[in-house]
Design goal:
Elements: E1 4-11, H1 18-33, E2 37-44, H2 45-48, H3 55-71, E3 79-83, H4 89-98, H5 103-107, H6 110-123, H7 130-151, H8 169-182, H9 191-194, H10 196-205, E4 211-213, H11 219-235, E5 245-247, H12 277-285, H13 304-309, H14 315-327, H15 332-347, H16 350-358, H17 361-390
Parallel strand pairs: 1-2, 2-3, 4-5
Helix pairs in contact: 3-16, 4-10, 4-17, 7-8, 10-11, 12-15
The structure holds adenosine-5'-triphosphate and magnesium ion.
Adenosine-5'-triphosphate (ATP) binds near residues 19, 254, 255, 265 and 266.
Length: about 400
């Protein structure tokens, strides 16, 4: 039996952060280093083009991702580390997939909806009633999202909840589609962003990946990949793609940023893995908290400092930290200083290795090129089959 295939990518959109580490990199490194998988880990530079239009930034970020994986202990004899753009077959497969997915299906993706919302917010930013308008829009959108989640993605009992309307699934989907179309108000979101889940499906399926460890924010995209595998198989009446499983470890669902929202490269709310000591310190000391006094008892689970710090600790460590928050007498300044100390300890050795690699990028480029060749050979096998099945070959 051949080994199971593991695949994971990170967008080259900026500085890596602890959300990326605990949400994806750590599992990938552990799983890859176990030697149980044929592992493909890539820098998603094609994906990054949807937002990054600065060639130096894209290049720098790509190198940093590779350097970070190596510095954090990825065993290169057990994993293929490469740039997505070294394997143009990803985009070829995405193009084929584009012909079996519909526009409304893509417009339901969370990431796309978030971007629409952000654009709307920017457009209305000068409006005197900006805040109230956006609050209403967001609340309304969330209600629509909830219904869509229940019906299309079969969350929380799915269709049964709505059987009082006596509609079929198809009819309900039609109603949802109408709501979405009314809601379709954005003008400048690029096609790449809309198509993001299709390219991600191609990333996964081109290697016939079995496991794709991702953070909760990417779960929907893995579901899309499963769907798209099915759409392809049905359209050409073949058994080409097996359906990938996602792997989200319960405890690392979503790491909050310093402002409490999901830590995200593009949101500027990160604690970076390998920024300077000053940058890390500034981010940690700037974590948003409520106005509780040091002596107050605090709800650990609602606290950003706790919710970040806990990921660095084992079970016992988490319990001890929780007690400090809940017993009172643990002020935010002290809590932040302890988190900072934990982070600095985590960085020991890794930061030096990262800096050393970044000061000699040719070494990273070589590793990525080597990885690209290996990945490409694998991807070409799949593309060969796809070309034949679709008639792209005589
Ligand atoms: P962007 O803002 O450009 O989308 P990002 O910070 O969300 O960047 P991605 O490249 O989209 O990072 O994601 C890389 C991996 O890190 C994915 O597997 C994603 O699930 C995971 N990830 C990103 N942010 C978090 C987070 N805050 N908590 C847990 N996992 C995360
Ligand atoms: Mg993201």
């Amino acid at each position: 039996m051949s080994q199971k295939v593991l695949l994971s990518g990170i967008q080259a959109t900026g500085k890596l952060h602890f959300g990326n580490y605990f949400g994806a990199m750590k599992q990938n490194i552990d799983l890859a280093n176990s030697g149980e998988y044929e592992s493909y880990i890539f820098v998603a530079d094609y994906h990054a083009l949807t937002t990054v239009k600065d060639k130096n930034a894209l290049r720098e970020s790509s190198l940093e991702i590779a350097a970070a994986y190596i510095a954090c202990g990825l065993d290169l004899s057990k994993a293929t580390l490469f740039r997505q753009s070294s394997v143009p077959e990803h985009t070829e497969l995405a193009w084929v997939f584009n012909n079996v997915v519909t526009m409304p299906y893509l417009m339901r993706a969370h990431a796309f909806k978030d971007r629409q919302f952000k654009e709307l917010s920017e457009r209305l930013s000068a409006h005197p009633r900006h805040e109230a308008l956006m609050k209403f829009t967001l609340d309304f959108r969330n209600k629509v999202e909830e219904v869509i989640g229940e019906l299309i993605f079969k969350d929380k009992g799915g269709l049964e909840k709505y059987n009082e309307y006596g509609l079929t699934e198809e009819e309900i989907n039609m109603c949802i589609s109408n709501i979405i179309n009314i809601n379709n108000i954005t003008e400048t979101v690029n096609v790449g962003l809309l198509d993001y889940p299709v390219l991600m499906a191609a990333d996964i399926l081109i290697y016939q990946a079995d496991v794709v460890p991702v953070g909760a924010d990417q779960k929907q995209h893995v579901e899309y990949a499963r769907d798209i595998a099915g759409f392809y198989n049905r359209a050409w009446n073949v058994e080409q793609f097996k359906l990938p499983k996602d792997m989200i470890l319960e405890s690392v669902a979503t790491i909050p940023g310093v402002d409490g929202a999901k830590m995200s490269k593009s949101k500027g709310n990160v604690i970076s893995l390998f920024g300077t000591d000053e940058e890390v310190k500034k981010a940690v000391m700037g974590i948003v908290t409520d106005s509780a006094r040091p002596e107050d008892k605090k709800n650990a689970d609602e606290n950003n400092i706790f919710n970040i710090h806990k990921h660095f600790l084992d079970e016992e460590g988490v319990a001890t930290l929780r007690a400090k928050f809940e017993n009172g007498g643990y002020g935010y300044k002290e809590a932040k200083e302890e988190l900072l100390a934990t982070i600095m300890k985590w960085r020991e050795g890794k930061k030096e290795k990262f800096d050393e690699l970044m000061s000699n990028p040719s070494q990273i480029v070589e590793i990525l090129e080597e990885g690209g060749k290996k990945a490409r050979a694998r991807a070409q096998e799949t593309i060969g089959q796809v070309r034949e099945q679709t008639g792209l070959i005589a």
